[in-house]
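hey all, quick one before standup. I had two proteins in the batch that finished overnight and I want to keep them in one place so we stop losing track of which output belongs to which input. First protein below, input sequence then structure tokens straight from the run.
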Amino acid sequence: MYDVVVIGGGNAALCAAITAREEGASVLLLEAAPKEWRGGNSQHTRNLRCMHNQPQDVLIDAYPEEEYWQDLLKVTGGKTNEHLARLVIRSTETCREWMKKHGVNFQPPLSGALHVARTNAFFMGGGKALVNAYFRSAQNLGVVVKYETKIKELDLKDGKFIAAIGEDGTRYEGKSCVLAAGGFESNREWLREAWGQNESGEWPADNFIIRGTRFNQGNLLKFMLDQGVDAIGDPSQSHCVAVDARAPLYDGGICTRIDCVSLGIVVNNQAKRFYDEGEDFWPKRYAIWGRLVAKQPQQIGYSIIDSKSVGRFMPPVFEGVKANSIRELAEKINLDPDQFEQTVREFNQACVKGEFNHTVLDNCHTENLSPAKTHWAVPLDTPPFYSYALRPGITFTYLGLKVEDDAAVRFNNIPSPNLYVAGEMMAGNVLGQGYTAGVGMSIGTTFGRIAGKNAARSALSQSALIQGAM
């Protein structure tokens, strides 16, 4: 029997396993994926949003707690637990030293259109390098890792963890357990159930692309919900971004994201705009566009730019459709040419001339146009023109287990004495809706370490009681 059983193999699970081992506990980590696909969605991440009151190595200027909190409050629309959110925010000021200790290296962040040089610390080599570093550190510390081990259920008694049970019936007993097995974003049937049908009789989830791992089926999450665990979050809410419609069904990751939305216009398949493309900086708004596209007919949109925008955004992996006129572009992407020309003409006429600057919230906006474009509104008048077809890309879901700052799983508001949760399985406590770049890793790192520490202490206190009784 191990002191701590950790279920999952991503950032939160690894932080929990390493921390529990540092506390002196024996640790078994169970990863559903094979070794080559280990790491869950964390392998596709790039950075961590960090609070800091002054410049810190790769972070410039300052990003104080209150500004971080206001950014989070804005994107969630108030659907967040302020106490837990601030706990996460404060932990990001100091966690990078711990991360470095376990092999994670940081690089100066990208500048320009991403606007994250001040707020986010980038991993050298991306999420894959982070995952590999953590696995090396965990195994060097003596954490036992088992791959291709899918857990179908837990043996629980009055809210207490007894054992994890694999699909093949194998029991993995432990004195405590950390659940960090991700959400249900790869489970198409559950997504269909969560999103339902729209007014046209379509099932929007059928057109979703899964940006990350195919292994997050939500089996353990569903089991816990069926056990009557305290839950939080709307099953239809998720980190949902607009990705290239040509992206693979799974594991396309960051390179399939389309980052030129704020520099042009976005239309649906009726060639009509449907939202303010320039509402705010892209890292604060990119995660709303998947949901916006999901609500459009046939769950598709088209990001349209002209040649003035080329070089001002992260180029996607696939080239856009190119044309020398708006009408030719419409014909190439199968939109009604007359309506498309009208949409572009009305947008161009509504643009108020200002000082364009894609690195600040500039004064280029539209007037007497609905929906408005608040910033970076410049006429689409310089060929060639480009189009990128968009689909909703699900990263992770927000339905999860309700927690307090001890990361303990709760039943009727009573904390389990030895069962804890971290990562996507509880992110909905902080993210009721919306997203801002890097905060998912902030939540996973913070609560992974809390869960690991408390799981270890629970297990070791049980051992001490047993030894004292002998």
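OK second protein, same deal, sequence then tokens:
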Amino acid sequence: MTQPPRPLRATAATTAPLEEAYDLVVIGAGAVGENVADRAVQGGLTAVVIESELVGGECSYWACMPSKALVRSVSALRAARALPGSREAATGRLDVEAVLARRDAVASHWDDSGQVRWLDSAGIALVRGEARLDGARRVVVTTPDGEERVIIARSAVAICTGSDAAIPGIPGLAEAAPWTSREATSAERVSERLAIIGGGVVGCEMATAFAGLGSTVTLISRGRLLSNLEEFASELVSRRLRDEGVTVFTGASPTRVDRRADGTVMIGLEGGAASVEADEVLVATGRRPRTDRLGLETIGLEPGAWLHVDDSLRVDGHDWLYAVGDVNHRALLTHQGKYQARAAGDVIAARARGEEVDASRWGAHSATADHDAVPSVAFTSPEVASVGMTAAGAAGRGLAIRVSDYEIGHVAGASLHAEGYRGRARLVIDDARDVVIGFTAVGDDVAELVHAATIAIVGEVPIARLQHAVPSYPTMSEIWLRLLETDRAQRRA
């Protein structure tokens, strides 16, 4: 049966001052909320964050950090087995108990005392409880002991509550007590048989982790895997997952899910041609905003909806309200949320001081990178590192583009990295401006390649200038030289 939730160790908040008014009130003390408050305090404002769970939020305890801790042990063993010498030394299986113990340490054992100490050192007040708006600039907090406190925002309120896993309306699924990413990343044991519904990043990462930890994994995807990335990324990840023992169904949708009396789960697939039996089912089909209990109706907004913002992260029609991170649906990634948070904190402070705000493209108070320069890494097997637009996405926007592809395994650094290295990289180039607008690399340990591409895209560096950025030899960064040479040869042909 599904595991009970882990106990959370929420450190008691320091005593708040009697004056219940701050320049900035932040609802949600995850990485995004922390950064909004920190930037505003650095700008001379007072700030309080309100948190109902753990300070540090989803990324620290149930997403980025614990999930990558699980995947890293799997990928490290795979890397050792990819070379003569180390292959002979790596003769055993992963110590699952040790992997889970390291994951627990990475997640601070679900204890937020370290994060609370950081808030205190940064001069940010903390209030524990459930927050809701009660009109403009007025926040009501129901504390853990049931009392209500009213906090007034002199300048701004920032909603940084993040998102939850969306549970699709598949008959029987909700009653089957499915795992979401939270239960998967905090699992106290490795399920013998795990079925995953959803072929996006979370589904593919958890398939990588649990297959490596010894589960028999079945991955069910309505379309191709990683459908928002380049098609070759889907192909290479699908092939590797199958090679590592994962059963992958693409173009398949569950018709019903049943938790049987013995605790096992049966999943029927459309067409009646197949069914999947598992001990646990993980749902990874998307996210929904945590905005349903925030009192949005008191200010004319729809509860449970995504919040639309401008490039200074201000909610449309409300000059005092900001929505930062997942809740604005611009880019559901921790690093992008923190980028938005830095911009939002700066702009809130600037407006509070009566200063002029520069929210123009790449301006001091703008979050425009969310539009065309969003980097991401899928820590799958193999990894997928990408930033900017795909070829299909750019063409769909009517841009005249050219594409340069190269096999990463042909680069000296990759051939040294692992025997039989397989991978692929792509540049998407805006033909009119002759600048890179998209980059994707698929292969083991390609994550660190993405930042160079991010700089090239954000900086709008001309291809002619990039030719002079010489990669060190023999590293995988030589892929840049090969992609540019391929582009040059294609233009001359």
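Flagging for whoever picks this up: The radius of gyration is 24 Å. The mean pLDDT is 95.
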